[in-house]
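User: Please check token order:
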Amino acid sequence: MKKAPSTGRKRPARNKSGKPKNTPALGSASPSGKKGPVKNKSGKPKNTPELSAAPPGGKTRPVNNKARIPKTKPVKITPMTGADPVREAVHQALLAFGRRPTNAENLLDRFISRDFKARDRAFFQEILYGTLRWRGRIDASYERFLSEPPERLSQGVREALRIGVYQIMFMDRVPDHGAVNTSVYLAGQDKGRGARGLVNAVLRRVLREPFQPPKAIKDRLTIWESHPEWLVKRWIAHLGPEAARARCEANNSEGPVVFRANPWQGSAARLADILGEEGIATEPGRVDPDSLWMKPRAGGGYYSFSKTGSYNAGAFIIQDEASSLAARFSGVGSGQRVLDTCAAPGGKTAVMAWMAGKRGRVVAADNASSRLGRLKINCARIGAPVQVIAMDSGNPAFGDVFDTVFVDAPCSGAGVIRRHPDARWRLRENNFGCHGEEQRALLVAAAGAVKLGGWLVYSVCTNEPEETDEVALAMDGGGFVRQPAVDSLPAAAREFVGEDGALRLLPESGRGLDGFFAVRWRRVQEGS
């Protein structure tokens, strides 16, 4: 073999590592006496910002190396990070709620990934709803360990702490180390190593030093029962301390899934048998004989009913007993003509359609076009011959031709807080008065569609005076007199009708019902 021709240059002597001798090591002094830059594993100098490709203008700009969580593709769980897609999705949902408070159901639709299995979706909902419901207690439990005001924390770190504390305090099946580690990771994604250390230290103190309930009633309801302070003060003043406490505790209970049987297909007892055959256990309702409560699964959570044969056949609707009672209180009779002016999503419409029978005529109206489609689907599924129309409830498109006009007016929803854990944080004290003004206007407008001798019914899922008694009192007189349909209620529910003829269903009653209010008037004078 021929040797390569010599170039006349000597090759540098090499050391044992194969590197040329006398070559300065990285970070050591160069022959000139200056140290070379220390480089990282990629070979690039440390602390030097990485440059992206030059934009069209020819300038370069540093790339932000901070790890970020993609909204659509969460980081998969790994032993190194402790992250998982479900908790990351909850974290993003809570951040969105902090920026713009909205209904928790909207957050479910927006942030639950299509890739989540049923178990993942249930886990997501439990953490999201629980963190919102218990925010007052959660914040107080960790804020006592902060060395600076909580307002100085970034929103991402605060939500990571809330997620961790909720799991520690309320989810026994989640290991404490798992709750801590995942929250540490989530905080680090927002503010880096310093945030990780803070969250780790705070959550470990929460573990070691359990939070105790305050003794003063206002502090207990505000902090331990997790309600806004202004709302607690209001209820203590209006209801008294014990009733206010009972209402707050009721709001923190999880509302049951209630089946309302379709009487055109059979009784509640028959529905219970059918559901049992489909693997869904139930128990009788508390006051409405047509209602069934779903029993929770042995491992927690509830069965899925929306894909059962009985649901698709229209054998039931999902409706709390209080809502069913409010519709019954309308007193609709067989063959009547009924107008439901604020009908969507259609639960009370369905009950009144069953009361009117197949010879009756029920018109269901709503001014939200986005809700009309769901209203039509719900009525069609149960076989109710309801005419669904778009109509401005404040300007009914009918004369005085209806036997019954039902106004299920938009309201604060203060009676159904247990089903909407976000609602307590979205409420404002002036909401009640504003709703009251709108509700009076809707009632006056609807009254024009009631024929002489017919009935006007007002219903809201709240118990606040500005939306209930004050609205009803403004409607009294002027050709309308109260005439409660007590006989239309089940015997067990008649105790809820007061001497003034109003139906009051209170969350704090101990009967497991949502909060509702309803009044029924008869038109006794023309031109009113």
Q: What stands out?
A: The chain is about 40% helix and 10% strand. Confidence is low (pLDDT under 50) at residues 1-12, 16-81. The longest strand covers residues 450-460. The longest helix spans residues 176-208.
